[in-house]
Amino acid sequence: MQILDIFNPQISVVAHGLEGKVILLYGGNSTGKTYQAVRMDKPYVLACESGLNGQNGIPFANIKTWSDFVNVVGQLTNPATVDKAKELYSTIIIDEVYASAQFCQTYICNKYGVSSVDEGKGGYGLWKQYETEYWKAVNMIVSSGYTVVFIAHVSETKDGKIVPKGDKRSITPIMDNCDIIAYLKSNGIDENGDRIHSSAYFAETDEYFARSRFDYMVPYIEDFTCDNLRKAIQDAIEAQEEAEGFESVSFETQKKNNEIERVPFDKLKEDVVALGMNFCEAGHQERLQELIADCLGEGNSVQEATERQYESLEILLAKLEEQKQKLGVA
C-alpha cells in the first residue's frame, strides 16, 4: 500500500491540450454557448433542454429525468465501457446545469415522497441528500478524462453581479472544479443585421464572475469561437512554460502523476492481520484492540471488515505502523 508521505511528495504538473480540462460557459440567450461547445473535438451532449434545436448532426442524449442523466454518465465512465466511449467522444457537454439540477431535485423529492426539497426530513430539508446525489454523478464526469463543458444561463446576485444560474448546491461545486469559467457577453448585430460573435471573459470584475486557473490566460477573447478558446488556453500554458521554465505533459502523464496506487482489499486485510499478529506476539494485544475499535468501531473485527471499510483498514494499518515503531514491535 502506498501511504501518503510528506517527505516524498507528489509534484504537480501541467497538461497541455484540452483533454481533462473542465470548462463552464455561461451567458444570455444566443451568445453561442451551445453553438461553439458542439464544435469542440468529438462532442457528445447531455441535452437537458432544447439547446440543440438549431444544430444538426450532433450526437446527444435526450435527458428528461435524473435516471437518464445517471445512466448516460454511467456508460461514459464505467471501466467496462469508458475506452469504447472515448473512441467516439472527447468532449462531454452538459446543457444545461440548472435543468440537470432540477431533474435531480425531482428525483430526491420522489425518493422521499415529498413535493419539494424544503419539505423533507420533517421540514429540515433534503438539501444535503440532493447535493450529494448531484455531485456524485457530476464528479464521475469531471474526473474521467474527457474535456467537460458545462453550459449555464445567467443570474444576478442581490447586488446586481452577473453569475452562473443555479442553486449553490449544484453550481458551486461545479465552479470550484472548473479550470475555466467564461462569461459570454453579446455584441449584438452588425450594420447588415448579422449577429456578431460574443466576447468571452475569463477574469472577474465588479460586473460579472469569471475565472481561469491559468495565470497567463488572456482576460478576454473579443471574438468567441471554439477555435479561439482552444488557442487561448494553449497559449496560456505555453506562456507559463516559457515564464516558469518547465515543459507541459500529456493528460495521461498528469493523470498517472496524480494517482495513488491502492492495493487490493484482500491484500490490505492480510497486511493488517499480519501486523496485528506481531502486536499480539509482542504482548500488545490490548493496544491492538484499542486501535481496531478506534478505526472500525467498538466490537468489530478486522476479519469481518467489508470492502466498504477499505479506508478504515488503511487508517488502521497506518496507525499500526506508527505504533509499531513506538512499541518496538517486529
Explain this structure to me?
This protein is α/β, with parallel strands linked by helices. The protein folds into 2 domains: 22-257, Rossmann fold (3-Layer(aba) Sandwich), CATH 3.40.50; 265-327. Helices cover 42% and strands 13% of the residues. It has helices spanning 33-37, 66-77, 82-88, 97-112, 127-142, 168-177, 226-244, 251-258, 265-281, 285-296, 310-327; strands at residues 22-27, 43-47, 60-62, 91-95, 147-152, 154-156, 162-164, 180-185, 199-201, 211-212, 220-221. The strands form 2 sheets. Strands 1, 2, 3, 4, 5, 8, 9, 10 and 11 form a 9-stranded mixed beta sheet that branches. Strands 6-7 form a two-stranded antiparallel ribbon. A hairpin with a 5-residue loop joins β6 and β7. α9 packs antiparallel against α10 (285-296). The radius of gyration is 25 Å and the shape is globular. The two termini are 19 Å apart. The model has no long low-confidence stretch (mean pLDDT 92).
Q: How many domains is the backbone divided into?
A: 2
Alpha carbon gap, first and last residue: 19 Å
- H/E element order: EHEEHHEHHEEEHEEEEHHHHH
- CATH topology name of the largest domain: Rossmann fold
Q: Residue share in helices?
A: 40-55%
Oligomer: single chain
What structural class should be given to the helix and strand makeup? alpha/beta
According to DSSP, the number of beta strands is 11
Beta-strand portion reads: 5-15%
Overall body shape: globular
CA radius of gyration: 25 Å
